[in-house]
Amino acid sequence: MRPLTGVAPRLSDEEQATRDALVEELDRLYAEHEGDEDLADEVDARLADIETAIEEFDGRPTLYDAAEVARAGAFVSVDASGNPRVDRGYVRAEDEASAVDGPEGDETDPSGNMGPDGSDQSASGTQGAVITVGGQAEAEEDEENVIRPLPDRLVTELTAHRTLALRDAVARNPHVAMTALLHKLVFDTFQHNSSPGCMEASVRHVFFPVQSADLKDSASAAAIAERQEAWRIDLPSDDNALWDTLAALDDASRSALLAQCVSYSVNALYEKVDRYGGGLSQQGLERRIAQADRLARAVGLDMVDEGWRPTVDNYLARDTKPRILEAVREAKGEQTVQLIDHLKKGDMAKEAERLLADSGWLPEPLRLANLTDQPDADDAPTLPDFLAVDDEEVTEADMDASDLIAAE
Fold this sequence. Notes:
Layout: E1 2-3, H1 13-32, H2 41-58, H3 66-71, E2 73-78, E3 84-91, E4 130-133, E5 136-139, H4 152-171, H5 174-190, H6 219-234, H7 239-248, H8 251-263, H9 282-299, H10 321-332, H11 334-337, H12 345-356, H13 401-407
Helix pairs in contact: 1-2, 5-7, 5-8, 10-12
């Protein structure tokens, strides 16, 4: 769904001066008491008051267009702490403003009998052809000496020359090339604009067909959302204004914005292969996983550092008893395995969560692939071991009904 793009409320001159004074006082107090182990009660209370006052200035709700608010909705859910969570400002496709709606919501004449000047052309017995040139509609005239529009084929041939020349000129100007790319990617990322434009480059958001309950509350999700909102506030929605803003950014900001846009197109998902050739192929899956491993190595991704830990809900209750024991064996050794190998599945999963909490252990799909693990160029590509599922490993003895549903 399209998220609404609002503007941050502007502070008055008096409010801005007050906020600046509070920030200055806050910085001064922190500098004065930087080495203190215990703060005096009055200093601690003053720091809290200042931070609260600054948050009130910065936390004012975003302002939206009234017409957009009328057609938008919200998602209400419960966060990981059990508190209500409201994500506002999303417009469903069927609630978008129709292109044929008039100023009062009336539809324009669908029969095409309205003339370019708004007159009813159906009243007369004859009707001249309407030719559109550069977005302007002109009625065809009967005079033989009138200058006709260029034939479509000729216009296409001429603009082919212009397109090649424009490509060459853009290739010689990296700054403009980066601005044009950013301009297109920002529209794709922040406004979900799918209408065609001059640039064919695009970002296709990759959405997750399935996801665990804790995904939205993960550190990665919070960091991405925070960066997205910070950029959304700073970037105008108008096409020309956006270009001017992007062109004026320094190189560091342009690179950061480009990285934010490109990140939304990353797809490292394992998905079932379509055996009938209508979707993802085996070769396509292997290529995706291999490229995801390369990307993870390039950025030094470590899921332990990202905050992922094996829990009963996100992994252990979904796996078999032998794999749970193998995980504990890898992390803690054989002696620790002997402490839990006699337990039932539910109790074993709970104990394994406690034992693995700070061990740094990760299931194979989350591990950083090493170059030494990659197949030789002459070898036929194969999926990693964790993608080769042995149906015999999952038995009713190891999994209860809910586990079977999860595994399926």
